[in-house]
Amino acid sequence: MKQTKTYLAKTVDELKPSGIRKFFDLAAGMEGVISLGVGEPDFVTSWSAREAAILSLEQGYTSYTANAGLLELRREVAAYMKNQFHASYDPKSEIIITVGASQALDIGLRAILDPGDEVIVIEPSFVSYAPLVTLAGGHPVAVQATKEYDFKIQTHQIEKAITARTKAIMLCSPNNPTGTMLNEKELRELAALVEKYDLLVLSDEIYSELVYDESYVSFAAIEGMKERTLLISGFSKSFAMTGWRLGFVCANEEITAAMLKIHQYAMMCAPTMAQYAALEALKSGREDVEEMKKSYRRRRNYFVQSLNDIGLSCHIPGGAFYAFPSIVNTGLTSEQFAEQLLIEEKVAVVPGNVFGSSGEGHIRCSYASSMEQLQEAVKRIKSFIEK
């Protein structure tokens, strides 16, 4: 019999494992580690949302929902998008409830890509973007945002990367891993480019609630962009519901219908009890969201200032809960820094190169940890770089 590996699809066999998970797994096997690695809120899901999930089980709501999700939840999502972000969607035909924002990205890419189509991925980028493009049969084209502009992509950089095969642009604002957020003027410049070259945009807006200094603007709310946007979001970050695995995608009716076909065959529907929890979170969770946001802002201000004070240059992130400091002056690569910091000082961070080559020379630190942990982490990082 042949070795099992010979039966593997070449595309899958060649995919690299997540660099984030590598360091998470290393840290999990050590005692006394302060983890600034995985992007997960240190808050728990609101009690009212948890109660709603428990009540749904007690009432026997354990069967499938509609493929697109509970209509009541889709209506709440539509109201949420309109009231918070001025993006209008029909809950019956333009919204799908998904198993996390990751599945929304997956079905979105599979719905629009033919083999060989190109998707521009703005780096540094979340680790799943390029692999999901590849798995959908497309070709990811990296365009590198740089520290020179605090990792804000410049429109002329994107335009240079556009070819006859370009189908879409992958956008994440606020960005993971840099925390950088594009303002309305910058989004309008990008929208003009999208219109000029007849492109689509997959706009990952999972961190849209977690912005600190400017008002958030959804790309789909820019004039003429709703029809060209697959807006991806969810409940993991803003509502502290990572383990519930619940997200949503909004798009025009034609694209939504295409995504729904894939969703029907691959997933059927999102978990019913998680949908009831999300429904309650949207109805009563605003106060919890605002409290988390205030806490993250305090932590951001402390942590970023502390990194700069100890000699790791770091721009002020406009959103999300990540700092992306430079470690170039230590003489170490991103991986060397992260590995040695974990071994010597038991602080887990993610090397910047796992987010693309422009992330080399940086590390991603999540400040979604308690202030006490952040203070201790700063002491340990300072001790490490002084050595």
The low-confidence runs, each spanning 5 or more residues with pLDDT under 50, are none
N-to-C order of helices and strands: HHEHHEHEHEHEHEEEHHHEHEEEH
User: Counting H and I runs of at least 4 residues, what is the number of helices?
Assistant: 13
Percentage of residues assigned to helices: 40-55%
On the 0-100 scale, what is the average pLDDT?
Answer: 94
What does this structure look like?
It contains 13 helices and twelve strands. The protein is of the alpha/beta class and 387 residues long. The strands form three sheets. It has a seven-stranded mixed beta sheet, sandwiched between helices. It has a three-stranded antiparallel beta sheet with strand order 9-12-11. Strand 3, helix 6 and strand 4 form a beta-alpha-beta unit. Helix 3 runs antiparallel to helix 10, helix 5 packs across helix 6 and helix 11 runs parallel beside helix 13.
Write a concise synopsis of the structure shown.
With 387 residues, this protein is α/β, with parallel strands linked by helices. Helix content is 41%, strand content 13%. The longest helix is centred in the last third of the chain and has 24 residues, at 286-309.
Provide key terms for this protein.
387 residues; 13% strand; alpha/beta; globular; 12 strands; seven-stranded mixed beta sheet; three-stranded antiparallel beta sheet; 13 helices
